[in-house]
Amino acid sequence: MIYTQxxxxxxxxxxxxxxxxxxxxxxxxxxxxxxxYYAAGGNIHWFTNGIAFAGDYLSAASFLGICGMIATAxxxxxxxxxxxxxxxxxxxxxxxEPMKRLGKYTFTDALDSKFNSKSIQLTAAISTLVVSVxxxxxxxxxxxxxxxxLLGLPHWVGVCIVGVVVTIIVATAGMASTTYVQFLKGALxxxxxxxxxxxxxxxxxxxxxxxxxTKDYHKxxxxxxxxxxxxxxxxxxxxxxxxxSEFGTAGxxxxxxxxxxxxxxxTENGTGSYSxxxxxxxxxxxxxxxxxxxxxxxxxxxxxxxxxxxxxVDGQQIAQTGPLGPFAYLNKFKDSTVVLxxxxxxxxxxxxxxxxxxxxxxxxxxxxxxxxxxxxxxSGLDRFNFISLMLALFCxxxxxxxxxxxxxxxxxxxxxxxxxxxxxxxxxxxxxxTLFLGLxxxxxxxxxxxxxxxxxPLLALSFGVVLFAIISSLAFAxxxxxxxxxxxxxxxxxxxxxxxxxxxxxxxxxxxxRAGKISAMVIGAIAIYLGIIFEGMNVSFLVGWAxxxxxxxxxxxxxxxxxxxxxxxxxxxxxxxxxxxxxxGLILISPDMWVRxxxxxxxxxxxxxxxxxxxxxxxxxxxxxxxxxTQKKGAMxxxxxxx
Amino acid sequence: xxxxxxVKLGKDNAAAYKSxxxxxxxxxxxxxxxxxxxINAAWPTIMEKIFFGQTLAVLYGFFLILFAFVLAxxxxxxxxxxxxRLN
Lengths: 643, 87
Known about the structure:
The complex is a heterodimer. By secondary structure, chain A is α+β, with helices and mostly antiparallel strands. Chain A has helices at 7-28, 34-39, 46-57, 60-73, 75-102, 107-111, 118-151, 155-173, 175-203, 246-249, 326-334, 363-366, 380-396, 401-404, 413-443, 455-461, 465-502, 509-533, 539-553, 555-563, 569-588, 591-596, 612-629, and strands spanning 222-228, 231-233, 238-241, 252-257, 260-268, 273-284, 290-292, 307-313, 316-318, 336-348, 351-362. In chain A, strands 1, 2, 3, 4, 5, 6, 7, 8, 9, 10 and 11 form an 11-stranded antiparallel β-sheet that branches. In chain A, α15 (413-443) crosses α16. Chain B has a two-stranded antiparallel ribbon with strand order 1-2. Chains A and B meet through α2, α5, α11, α13 and α15 of A and α1, β2 and α2 of B.
């Protein structure tokens, strides 16, 4: 509706996927050992590994989710960028070198390096699988979101393409091809995003986002209405739902003119008259049929949004700034008034109407927290929820299995450290770019307000279809790469941790590789299934939870094994179990999940959505208590630093 | 049971020193990060104040990203020097 398929975009996408598959087969011929499959032989250069880290980490959540969130909620979206980056400091200062020193193929190896404990092998492998699956769902959903505008294919086809391609990649070459695909993708993503940001700055800020003169922006209308004998009257329009209707109660009216229905946001002028601001609306009937601005999607009545209402420079209102530097861009943005979009639901019988209405907001208000997270006049619980989320982002990175296994692909501890620093530089730079990509989308009339995940690719489209094709292919490759890493991590958990170590199947080197490849195919099939059934779920929604689960289940165990010499195997296993079950349990009874069960969020047993501030301390406490209780029975850990 | 590094690693005599400075720098960055989080949660309007033509929120955000990179470089410098000295 907002975008149409381009042959160039399709050609570029197909070329990219075939290239990735070719690279995979080429590298796959050289992978015959378990060390080669799970850890790329441990001989990847630290710079390559660092950029591959960035490739792994800058997943659909970063590229699609964060840019979309900044485009609709400003600074609050950028808080995710800051939190995700800060998490790398935990990885660098506390985890990188010890992980390299202690582990072999999986993070379970590092946890179990001093114990050889069945309980650790089992709990850590389960934790790896749960976190990886949580992380896989949004990636697969992101793939489905991308193929709709890119290839014109339905959601499930996108999920299947990613699932099949990634499973082939992983089942042929393992960590080596995953690393080089991630390196390539990470580097290209940085270069292309920098180009888009350069173009955004060159275009500057303007009140008429006509995409460089190539596409007219929708002209929003304002109407006047009066009340006569209790009825609303608008010149030239017939009122379908007035002040006393469900629409009126919610602050809207529904009008019609020449057979075309429209919805308007009401503002009372105080003298019995109203001004009506044009709104967008999506109507969903009982049979699932959806109308966009009163018409089927194919009619193209729905349009992209995102514009500045006023730009003030030196006390004067101007229409266009011209090219700006990055700091001047933010400075001028701060002094502008930008139209953001509120959302309300109106239910009449079995028909639900989602209404998107204009909310002019000062730029300075957008460039500070509070539009998404409730921090102004917030209750203690609101603040707790916010702090808990920021804690999960901070602690989650160093506990993500697909990130941790990358420490085994480099030859030394110094290389592990240096590759983390390269990752911090690359990811930090990209996260600075996300601010400009998001604000660029917010002000260039490119946001699909029903699904902001496509904001960054659609911003690229405003500069031409070539850039859109490249950025979309890269976004798809982003999903491919991240899913590859997650499936390798999951396959390692099943074949190496569970089958070889926990069940003691004593497989040969070739057997371990075969088991890993079969596991990869099974997990790939599960990921495809989950990606299809979770269609419509916000891409960044589950990623925040994946961070919370990873931080709760894995990080306390990693930290305490490294820095507390009284930790026992029972304590570590208890910590993983408590962290995993408490974070999952709190998520399942959270208000956000209550909505997904079709219940009212206020009826949920708890009033917060982010479990980390409870589940991380609970996991630490479980480790300390159980370790102290099992000092005589459990094996004492020598200081890992002395290993 | 298949544990131990994927490649053979030599003994690292600088490990204890690196761990010590890693913890110190981690504490410094953690305090800076949670300072940012607490101000955002408790006094969000302070983040709208303008310094050097930008909101404090934007300046603090940029600072956290750049500070992470600077600390990482400093950490690597000390670690590399210690590895040369002690190994």
